[in-house]
């Protein structure tokens, strides 16, 4: 545990997140649930079937399957589309979760070749898809592109990419790990966004703040096939209800909060951008998340942040990472906790940050 | 839901299992756990590390990794041993879980060829291993062999197979889904059994009665490699504590009950064997489980069982399956509920069964 993390843990308020990831998250979700509710059983039973139907309908898709993780769900989605076309090549962003956070599962388990579409610092545009030199079975778009601060293409770009892929017999898959979080910016419903995609993955432990778990949605034939692969991956557990019932609880609690988080992110980013040597990416957030870049060396920024946490009792972030140009950055995700920080305390935090960064 | 299952659900007592798989299983486990206990985080943190160390030590292995499922853990174990030897062939029983319950994940995801060692109605003996015509990287033994009633080889056979495999550079993997349950019969400790194997999988929702989850144990190099594959499979969840903390709770509650379950199984099997046209496999159980075979057609046995459930309020089993020879069978697993059935009621059940089967 780093010093920064420890100092962050000891603050009274935090600008980010929904609060600590602890057993209380589970206890709160299950408090109102009757003990005699039967477990799901290897993918069957009311608990899992009803939630799958609910989210399928919420996304405007025919069917949905609950998975323990997005890693599992997305590899399977791409595998199904590759098998359907008989071509084991897919395309995605160079900083896609599949490329950098999954130990190459897509290659090691599924033997799928991946084409990285663009330079890592920007999102995929229609030109990038049109200019692909190789045919692919499936294109994966991540909305928002998390590793570059949560940037988004325009909705018109999504429509153009969707139309192009449809014409070229390329399946379009949505990595919607933070889909709920971008709907307010697009001013679109989930079905309006999802209708552009053949398959969709959504997560329940990011903006929603559940314990873990994912939904993979699409046509019935696709989701039925995904169940077979779910069993192969070892994801068809006898009981997934600890994740499902908590996902449902926090989905209901927070699905209508995404507009609030988005506005809060815009406000908080503006505070950061007023500090010398600090900038956010995107400058104006398009979801509840953004990255904060400091032009200063990480070893200088850490003690400054720790001082502020100790002096104000407010935590800004629990971690910092170095960048290539001798600076450092952190990822900010707004949740329930931002609203709980008193306005004068917030002002004080940034007053101090401004002074100390000079 | 079948009529038999429904009738079973409505009984006051059941001869099998620990009770209904419902939300109460989770609630009971978490009742005594503080809400401020931090979640594990992608395989790290006290909650997961301490449990892994505890079970590793309980099994007498250097290290252990918690997995969401045995399906995932065992495919990974075999893959690691295949890669180590540079040969993608393994051997196991024709009714191994990997062969019949996993949609061929081992073949579809890992491209591993499987050799089925013996006729499906008996366990693997040393001769079967010696007479293998093809070299294999790993031999998987399931103790007990669940699909044939939970039969076991002798401990001397295990020792001989272990020695032979060691000499021939074949890794020996233990499918110990019901390992806890066979220790009383062998009159051996877990480390004594596990020392014969290079890697071991154990489960926490069978005799232990937890919610879900598995441990894979072995040498440190092996378990570290298994963590990489766990991520690839999509099993390295941000939070596994709902399974881990409940596994720990029920492990403590039931690990010393296995001798009792074993004795109860012997008693219950003897009741069945006194009925005309009924026999158990094994005749004398060697764990908490056995199969009951009826020589009568399934469509005749079901109404008989339902009658008994309704007349006595005691459930025997929730399901029956057809056999090849016009009979049917069911799997019995003894848990906490057997002891709760009053002796006179038990006698009454079998008195009625005897009468009705004539």
List the helices and strands and how they pair.
The structure is a homodimer of 358-residue chains.
Chain A: H1 3-9, E1 13-14, H2 23-30, H3 46-59, E2 63-67, H4 70-85, E3 89-92, H5 97-100, H6 105-108, E4 113-116, H7 126-130, E5 138-142, H8 155-167, E6 171-176, H9 179-186, H10 190-194, E7 199-203, E8 214-218, H11 220-233, H12 241-254, H13 258-273, E9 278-281, E10 289-294, H14 298-312, E11 314-315, E12 321-322, E13 328-333, H15 343-357
Parallel strand pairs in A: 1-11, 3-4, 3-5, 5-6, 6-7
Antiparallel strand pairs in A: 2-8, 7-8, 9-10, 10-13, 12-13
Mean pLDDT of chain A: 97
Work out the strand percent of chain A: 15-25%
Q: In oligomeric terms, what are we looking at?
A: homodimer
**Sheet of most strands of chain A:** 7 strands, mixed
| CATH architecture verdict of the largest domain in chain A | 3-Layer(aba) Sandwich
Uncertain runs of chain A: none
Q: Element order, helices and strands of chain A? A: HEHHEHEHHEHEHEHHEEHHHEEHEEEH
Question: What is the CATH superfamily label of the largest domain in chain A?
Answer: Type I PLP-dependent aspartate aminotransferase-like (Major domain)
Structural features, described:
- The structure is a homodimer of 358-residue chains.
- The first copy, chain A, has 358 residues and is α/β, with parallel strands linked by helices.
- Chain A folds into two domains: 3-20 and 257-357, Aspartate Aminotransferase, domain 1 (Alpha-Beta Complex); 40-238, Type I PLP-dependent aspartate aminotransferase-like (Major domain) (Aspartate Aminotransferase, domain 2, 3-Layer(aba) Sandwich), CATH 3.40.640.10.
- Chain A is 44% helix and 16% strand.
- Chain A has 15 helices and 13 strands.
- Chain A has helices at 3-9, 23-30, 46-59, 70-85, 97-100, 105-108, 126-130, 155-167, 179-186, 190-194, 220-233, 241-254, 258-273, 298-312, 343-357; strands at 13-14, 63-67, 89-92, 113-116, 138-142, 171-176, 199-203, 214-218, 278-281, 289-294, 314-315, 321-322, 328-333.
- In chain A, the strands form three sheets. A seven-stranded mixed beta sheet of chain A has the order 2-8-7-6-5-3-4, sandwiched between helices. In chain A, strands 9-10-13-12 form a four-stranded antiparallel beta sheet, covered by helices on one side. A two-stranded parallel ribbon of chain A has the order 1-11.
- In chain A, strand 5 (138-142), helix 8 (155-167) and strand 6 (171-176) form a beta-alpha-beta unit.
- In chain A, helix 2 packs across helix 12 (241-254) and helix 4 crosses helix 11.
- The longest helix of chain A has 16 residues, at 70-85.
- Chain A is globular and about 60 Å long.
- The first copy, chain A, starts with a helix and ends with a helix.
- The interface between A and B is large, with 51 and 51 residues.
